[in-house]
Each structure stands twice: as structure tokens, then as C-alpha cells.
Amino acid sequence: MKESLHQKIYDKLYKQALSLPPHSKLPSENQLCENFSASRMTINKAITRLASKGIIYRKKGSGTYSSPQQKTKSIKFLIPSVNFNNMPIENMIWINQIINGVMSKAAEKMLKFEIIPISKSNIYGEIEWSFLMDLDKNDYVVIVSSWFEPLFDFLIQRECKILFVDSSFKEECFYRKYMDNWHMLTYSKEKAARDVLNCLIESGTSRIALVSTHEIIMGSPETSFYSSCINASKSFNISLSELNILKTKSKFRDMEILKRELKGLYDKIKYDGIIFYDAHNMYEIASILKNELKMEAPEDISYITWMGDTPSPQNEQKRISSLKLPLVEMGQTCANIVADGNYRPGETHFTAFLDLQDTTKTPKK
């Protein structure tokens, strides 16, 4: 991304103002126009931005001065799009949990908190750079997915302090060059996947289907979760394969197609356990298997889901077992790290846990 003249002027004035003692006078706008070979409008735009951030202040009839260093720390939370609320519910749930954690603790600790969208389209790589130009080395920036990878070099250039909340079960090797310099909040993906499989095996399950109801997106929490389960299954004597993932973009609008796909998958591997991503759709699948294949949980089949925060339908008395990630706690820890001055490159570890319900814990016949 090529920097505009306005941005170059802003960056230089920003560094100059921070290097001066408080209340030091900066060059006049006429001097700055001459120094930077820029128009008065361009200079004024840069000064206005700096003043809005509290880096400098203006005195009418006197000039522009450097401000005392701000004591209030700022947390910027990046979200994928201005249309975030229209994203698929499974994406919104886990991101909103982290946001709620950061926001509640930031308010308690008297920290500034701002949510910044990075694009207008929610298409990977289509960045609206103008949304991000105010980020600088005084900002603590929270990132929640490798989906933001196109920003990584830019954030390093801006010298932001990155808090990377690893909520995507992804492999980190490719990103290690970045993450070694950031504060990571993470949990053991391998242990989480083993716990899910152990739970199903202890319920008597031996043939497990990984079920998805929408397009698999590279780097998404769902894709990485399934990959972790597949890798963990290699140490267990059970039938589990990536080929067992059911893919459909229909979002259950065509129930007849879904019924046919579920029956076909059952005829192929005779599954007696299902690992699913979204609890809300899991109830619909459970209803189909109960009515079409006469499979009752937990006697005939066990269910477990990663996204378990959707309430069950009124006519569903048994909840689906779920893998719970401490997302709110991870968000709260981000704010605590900023407030307490504990930001440093490295990792803070958390533990996922299983919320077991009657649909899973009783062994099948």
C-alpha cells in the first residue's frame, strides 16, 4: 500500500510532537507547507487528526503545541466488516464473546475501547486502509483470527502492540514470524480435540462423522477445529475421515437434500457419533436422524458441538454437549494486560472444557 502525502506528513508530525516536551510550540502551518511542499489543506488535515487524538492542541491566535502524554490507554478491536452484524451467526457468536470480555473489563479499568472494521465487503484481502490510518504505537490492537493476515505487515509498520486471541484452532507455524513479537492468548488445540474424541469414545462411539453445513473457508475456526480432530483421531482406534465432512451451502433451506445427504453418509460409514460446529443446526440434524433413521440420543448416537451457546428449541429437552472455549475470559485478560502494563511478546495459556449433557454421556447399546 502506497502512503499518501497526508499520511507521511501525519507520521512525521506525530513523531515530532511525541519527541518534544509538553506544551512545546510546533512550526506554523505556513512553515509546514514550505517544509513538506504541501498545500495548506493537506497540512491542516494532518494537524486536525493529531489534535483529535490528543497528540497536539491548538491555541487560537497563538499556534499549535505538543500535548502532555496521555495516561489513558487505548484498545482497538478489529472486526472483519462494517456489516459485521450481518455475518453468519457462527462467526458472530465467538467474536462477540471476546468483544464482550474486552469491553466489560476495559470499562472497569477505565481504558478507551474502540471497534474498528477493516473492510466494507467482508471479502478476504479487500482492506479499507482509510479505516486504519489512525493506528499507531500507542494503540493495543486485538486480533481474533488469521483472517486478518493481510494486515500483519501494516500493523508492524505502525508499531502497534498486538494482542492475538487465538480462537481458530489453526496451525501457527506460518505466522510464527509475527507472533513471536506479539502477545498471544491461546489454548491447546490438540488437547481440546483429544477431549472431544475421548468424550465420544467413552460414550461407546467408534464411527464419527464431522458435519458441516456451509462452505469451508480456509483459516476459519470451523476448518481448523475439524483439522485438529482429524489429526487427534490418528492416536485413537476409531473411524474418522475428512471425507466424512458434509458440505452444503443451503443452510438447511432444502430439508429434503439434507435428509438425503445424512442418509447417504450413514449408509457409507454407519456413524454413531457426530462432531458438529454450530449447536443451532445440530438440533435440526438430531431431529432428522430421530425421525428418519430412528436414532435416539444417547442410546443410538452421541452429539458434540464446538459452538454451544445457542439455546435449544423449546421442544428439545436435552441439550447438545459442547466444547466451551474461555472466550470471554480471554477478552477480559486482554484488557487486564493493557491496564496492568503486562504486555510482552509471548503466550498466555487457557484451557477449553467440555460441557456434557444427557445426549452424550450415557453409553450406547
Structure, described:
The protein has helices at 5-19, 29-36, 40-52, 89-108, 152-157, 176-179, 189-202, 221-233, 255-269, 279-292, 327-339, 358-361, and strands spanning 56-59, 63-66, 74-79, 112-117, 139-143, 161-165, 183-187, 208-211, 273-278, 302-307, 321-324, 346-350, 353-355. The longest helix has 20 residues, at 89-108. The protein has a six-stranded parallel β-sheet with strand order 4-3-5-6-7-12, covered by helices on one side. It has three domains: 5-66, Arc Repressor Mutant, subunit A, CATH 1.10.10; 74-188 and 326-352, Rossmann fold (3-Layer(aba) Sandwich); 189-325 and 354-361, Rossmann fold, CATH 3.40.50.2300. Helix 4 (89-108) runs parallel beside helix 11 (327-339). By secondary structure, the chain is of the alpha/beta class. It has twelve helices and 13 strands. Mean pLDDT is 80; it is low at 242-252. Helix content is 38%, strand content 17%.
Mean pLDDT: 80
CATH superfamily of the largest domain: Response regulator
Trace the largest sheet across and list its strands. 4-3-5-6-7-12
CATH-level-2 architecture of the largest domain: 3-Layer(aba) Sandwich
What is the name of the CATH class of the largest domain?
Alpha Beta
Query: How far is the first residue's CA from the last residue's CA?
Result: 61 Å
Briefly note the structural class of the backbone. Answer: alpha/beta
CA radius of gyration: 25 Å
State the shape: elongated
Number of helices: 12
Biggest sheet record: 6 strands, parallel
> Strand content of the residues, in percent?
15-25%
Describe the SSE topology.
Blueprint: H1 5-19, H2 29-36, H3 40-52, E1 56-59, E2 63-66, E3 74-79, H4 89-108, E4 112-117, E5 139-143, H5 152-157, E6 161-165, H6 176-179, E7 183-187, H7 189-202, E8 208-211, H8 221-233, H9 255-269, E9 273-278, H10 279-292, E10 302-307, E11 321-324, H11 327-339, E12 346-350, E13 353-355, H12 358-361
Parallel strand pairs: 3-4, 3-5, 5-6, 6-7, 7-12, 8-9, 9-10, 10-11
Antiparallel strand pairs: 1-2, 11-13
Helix pairs in contact: 1-3, 2-3, 4-11, 7-8
